């Protein structure tokens, strides 16, 4: 589960670090900016604030409700009545002002529906917290992925540019040899064809960089001109624990699984609310009323009435609503349980994928490091062989292509390791601010 105190510490750090667009931005600085600016995460924070109120709303149904009312009115009327021995009718004006003040209190004594709403509110609040944890982890995934994509795009530009420069130098060598009568037209055409491809790859890599930067900038909420680059002395950390250990941790801590549990509890309380439609309700009612000239009969009189009593309400018939609501709630509970089982299965698949990827990435990195060294030696050996007349220009072009491919694959393997490292901890529900700091340490400002 995300450590909320550490997230708060990251947010407070926003006010102390220098403007991140003025120099190379670290992953940690980008994360701090994303916590404040990412639109999706801002929405998650708002949802969390709203979700916290569910418990208060549910508890309100169990607490006393107090109301005050005040009424004032002008009354106009007349009375016609016989007077005297002759029975003559006399009309008398009955104009008067009246007012009424009342305070009433209602306290639930027994209300199964209100109690179920309270328990449901608690579950809804916990569901919102679990969703916030899941979205916090998702922010880390999106940010690290975007940061890695931008770095990989820069790596490709660097590799393709180096390849292009090497091909330009090789073309110059071919031109000089051809001018001396020692080279061939075929060598010149081969090198030029490779050079044209390299120029095209640089253009494509630049397009990829612009797309990757756009995604990264949208997450951090500002334009980043420079970002830290992957360190050269990359040393992956060996994976600790068996898959079963990770699985047990994930089932206990993964926020989406926790949200699924709370969702089942919400559905269970919906069933309890529906069943409450068959149960009686008992309330304690108390009131105080002060009236002035409330009726014609009480003109010019003040009345003070205090009352206290118990109200019993017994449901008898509601047109089939209660039974239908109960069946519907049971169906929703069954669906919540099915969704929870599906989430467990999905988590197991994702966890296994990232666990295997984390282990294989370390082996792949070691293998690719050896491949790069071998490819570098091959390029040098091929150059010497060409001078000795053993190899030809095409052999050198192929060797240089192998070296570029090996370096690109090594960079890809390193980024895949970091992403697997992160996604494994996200799936296990253990990702934290410390993990972001750890991943950030793999990047450093470019010299």
Span from first to last CA?
A: 37 Å
Question: What is the CATH topology descriptor of the largest domain?
Answer: Outer membrane efflux proteins (OEP)
Q: Tell me the radius of gyration.
A: 38 Å
Tertiary shape? elongated
Q: What's the architecture of the largest domain, going by CATH?
A: Up-down Bundle
Structure description:
The protein has 447 residues and is of the alpha+beta class. It has two domains: 4-62 and 111-278 and 322-444, Outer membrane efflux proteins (OEP) (Up-down Bundle), CATH 1.20.1600.10; 68-110 and 280-314. 65% of the residues lie in helices and 15% in strands. It is built from ten helices and eight strands. The protein has helices at 4-13, 27-37, 39-60, 112-180, 185-220, 243-253, 255-275, 321-387, 393-428, 433-440; strands at 65-75, 78-83, 88-93, 96-110, 229-230, 281-292, 302-313, 443-444. The chain has a four-stranded antiparallel sheet with strand order 1-4-6-7, with no helix packed on it. It has a two-stranded antiparallel sheet with strand order 2-3. A hairpin with a 4-residue loop joins β2 (78-83) and β3 (88-93). α1 crosses α2, α2 crosses α4 and α4 (112-180) packs antiparallel against α5. The longest helix is centred in the N-terminal third of the chain and has 69 residues, at 112-180. The chain starts with a helix and ends with a strand.
